[in-house]
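Appendix B.2, paired examples.
Example (i):
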Amino acid sequence: QAESVRGGVSSRFIFPALSQCKSSPASKMSSSVIVLGSSGNVGSALIKTLATQFPALKVLAGVRDPTSAKAAPLKQGNVTLVPADLSNPATLAAAIPKNVDAVFVNTPGDADRTQLAINGITAAKTAQAKHVVLVSVLNTDKAGAIFGKQFTPIEAAAKASGVPYTLLRLPIFIDNNWANLESIKGQGKIYGPAKPDAKFTPIAVSDVAQAAATILANPGPHANKTYRLTAPAFSHTELAAAFSAATGKQVDYVQVPYDAAKQAFLGLGFPEWQVDGILELYHDIDDGASYYTFSGDFQAITGKAPTTIEQWTAQVGAAFK
């Protein structure tokens, strides 16, 4: 988990597999797609899913430096690495093929990510891409939300671009629990500021990749739609119980004050705006925010049920013992 959370979508704490949708007569399977931001958690999972489940699809993996060690694992089968930097529009123009079937813009973890994502949308429009898929956050519609204010202009740019679009609004990721590895292994504890019994709806990164790959491979049915990718809701008490079952030892959730949580995040090197955004998400959990409800959109897209917390902890439990 080498990255850091950049405001709820990708991360070292990652706050932020696949069946095809049935084709309608008007839909057309893609022959080529490009993923901008392929080396992050969502991007790399998406590339893996496209490579393993859509081997006939030509996939371009856009990365800042295709020769880097970080990019090397992305090159597999039907995947070609190309230089593409959202902060350098010239590289996007060179990377995105004319009339490409679909472009995935993986909103980067950066204070300037609003403009960076808009650069990706603009480049897709200039290349006359047939579809663009973007990640967003669940609280985009919440007035004054820190992360929402960053993503509202991104969503607006996608809708104004004239390119058929799909918006994937994401919650906190289940995979964030890797940040609890040492405390679970050493103490049998999970620490966090949220109320123990307040429910929230994290999604697995692999499920985000599965939904995105399904859409990229067959964009037509998803044109101009906004999805909320959520899993069945659970509380931190239920999270601890799932880890107890998966590890065969007692794991408890310990609520800590918000001020202490903020200092812990700042101590890890996160910028204050980002820490405040993360803690705002936890306050929304405590307040029972309406967006923390199970949407069913993942199953509507893929035909599969999303990963539950019991399934995820069972898959990774051995590492937490």
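Example (ii):
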Amino acid sequence: MAPTASMDGHAKPAAAMQVFGGKQPQPPTRAKSEFIWSSKDEPHAARRREILSKHPEIKQLFGPEPLTKYIVLAVVALQLAVAYALRDRAWTLEFFVAAYVIGATANQNLFLAIHELSHNLGFKSIRANRLLGFFANLPIVIPYASKFKGYHTEHHKMQGVDGIDTDVPTQFELCLFGSVVGKLFFCINQIFFYALRPMFVRDQPLDRWSFLNMGIQGAFVGATVSWLGMGPVWYLLMSSYLAGSLHPCASHFIAEHYVFVGEVETYSYYGPLNVLCYNVGYHNEHHDFPNVPWSRLPKVYQAAPEYYSTLPHHESWPLVIWKFITTPNAGLNDRVKRADEHNIAKTTVCSTRR
């Protein structure tokens, strides 16, 4: 799975800037039903321009990573092999252990492969990136790769904008999951909220890529059930569920944009789990330079440490999810939102042409 480059020999994040390691300013005090509303632009576009003015060599990091397709092939093969091996072992102890340890880790890796491919970072060809994304989608069972691309592009371009950025929880979720028990339920089942939220927040029409994605998934599931029964499908579905539940790698969903320090809205993670997750922990670096592939994101940090070493960052994903659940003042409302000043959400739909 995706290796992470070492930062040895380069400036490292200041220990005092660890989110849970020092005396950091707390998010603004407000009611549990209120987000953190900002009148400022999202921080990444301005920082990108500033960094490029001082470090134009970062442009050399742009472009596809050829290794991605081989990792996707290997992880899909692994999942299909385990699904085949457990075809008659559904709902046994070994089924659940394998689904959590192997399956959830592998499917989280495939989620993030699809994320990479949504940025066209597997191939130069947009079509090739889409098709590899559909292949990576196979063990996830639910066809989502085609839809993810449009929603994720808007998350980057209009981070936190009300009614457009579907990464931000809805008001309904805030009201329902404000308690410790509610947050625990949310984290156990967050895969459902990430999957269903876009349908209620932002319309995206079906196109030929959506139908192709659904057709490929339908054919794959149909052939699997016809040949091997439901056993492998149950394993793959459980893997996808656990990949978005209380799994160490799933903590990145909380770590990336939930506000833990002041009004800082994006956080990087520099721990070992990046090796399993296409370096998605380098999240400030990714948002600043979304056309740099996973394998070169550490080099962005190395090129401009004066920008990244002083930003609040995480050192442990599991600690993030623990603190999020157990800290009384932390909650789903700890997200920065921006007003939709140009009424984009009501006058447009999410574009599928990316």
